Amino acid sequence: MTNLTPREIVSELDRFIIGQADAKRAVAVALRNRWRRQRLSPEMREEVYPKNILMIGPTGVGKTEISRRLAKLAKAPFLKVEATKFTEVGYVGRDVEQIIRDLVDAAMVETRERMREEVKTRAHKAAEERVIEALAGADAREQTREMFRRKLRDGELDDKQIEIEVADTAGPQMMLGGNPGMEMQMQGLQDLFKAFGGAKKTRRKMSVAESYEVLISEEADKLLDDEMVKTAALEAVSQSGIVFLDEIDKVAARAETRGADVSREGVQRDLLPLIEGTTVSTKYGPVKTDHILFIASGAFHIAKPSDLLPELQGRLPIRVELRPLTEEDFVRILTETDNALTRQYTALMGTEEVTVTFTEDGIAALARIAAEVNRSVENIGARRLYTVMERVFEELSFTAPDRAGDIVTVDAAFVEKHLGALAQSADLSRYVL
Ligand SMILES: Nc1ncnc2c1ncn2[C@@H]1O[C@H](COP(=O)(O)OP(=O)(O)OP(=O)(O)O)[C@@H](O)[C@H]1O
């Protein structure tokens, strides 16, 4: 759990997301409230529920990004799911519980990864022993083993092929078409199988360098206590999980169209217990959803928040509006964020030894064209920057390997040359930008 203050959380988010101050403040407070809650007496703690958030704003303006970055900052399990998914044919009520199961799955992967990092040094040692054994033979003398160890550490043996015995990951693991009952049974079978026979082994040929990765992760898994991973993951989900429910407006039924919208209202009814707090059984154990933070989001162009079921409205008490992005925002997104596309393209081209620099008027041209296409074709927010940049760099991306040593300046003329004609024709840009 992070102990950053709301102000610090906002300033962390500022590194990646331009503007949208209200939304940043709301999520920062939500996160801080969790920290506060952890400091309460156990009885009081149980009483304090998260104040879920409703983000209202057009597509591509940072709703998901804010939530995802927040989760990352908090090292909290995160899942994005579209509410409309549950209106599709074939879904039945209980399926919304799959959200929590997916969240647990994500948390298991993250938790195992994190704990694996913690045991990595020990795992590395054990993996090295196994590689040396594969290279030198099981009964080699200590001297020989030392010689191999030295060469191995110097990387001299990286390309050498060896045969090692590894766990057969294709074992009895099966995906059973999302049937949780069956999955739980299979898990039981797998545990049984492990307890009796141990995991199945198979011999595989690979290079020393490749074998390291496989062996380290295998050794790390041996050192990891499955029970511990499971407990930590379940705890992380129930205490700090974040679910981002996109397109909630699309399941809002407006009063006059009720008849045709039964299934949408049904989805809201199904979601309600999750948000109000219930217990969902997963293959790793039961999870209480009471303290999971839900961030619902939608454009609400047609439906309004007041068209949601009253109970659901009550469970999403914090409302924040995100505004459409302007040309000036695009300039800032292209230059000020830590992960700005200009930085990414410069770094990518750098790997081919092509030096890319952007001039101010080049950036202004990119932002202007993105804003224009958003106006004339469809407003997809900052996502437009991706398509515009990809187009501008298309030729350079292709030819860069032949251009090592070149210096390329992306100025207004460069942008115009690669994009000008396209951007002027709405018909053309509809397809390519
Ligand atoms: N305000 C912003 N600052 C920086 N980057 C942004 C901003 N808004 C959006 N982006 C970038 O645009 C992309 C899409 O944004 P995001 O996924 O947050 O959209 P969204 O608002 O959740 O839309 P949707 O509801 O359609 O999913 C992301 O890669 C994000 O980094």
Please name the defining characteristics of this protein.
cytoplasm, ATP hydrolysis activity, binds adenosine-5'-triphosphate, 433 residues, five-stranded parallel β-sheet, Rossmann fold, 3 domains, 18 helices, alpha/beta, two-stranded antiparallel sheet, single chain, chaperone, hydrolase, Helicase, Ruva Protein, domain 3
Distance between the termini: 41 Å
What is the CATH domain class of the largest domain? Alpha Beta
Q: Structural class, from secondary structure content?
A: alpha/beta
Which geometry do the CA atoms define? flat
Order of strands across the main sheet: 2-5-8-1-9
Identify the CATH architecture of the largest domain.
3-Layer(aba) Sandwich
If you consult CATH, what is the topology of the largest domain?
Rossmann fold
Number of helices: 18
- Unreliable spans are 171-181
Radius of gyration: 26 Å
What small molecules accompany the polymer chains? adenosine-5'-triphosphate
CATH superfamily of the largest domain: P-loop containing nucleotide triphosphate hydrolases
Which percent bin holds the helix content? 55-70%
SS strand fraction = 5-15%
Number of domains: 3
The H/E string reads HHHEHEHHEHEHHEHEEEHEHHEHHHEHH
Mean pLDDT: 86
Largest beta sheet, briefly?
5 strands, parallel
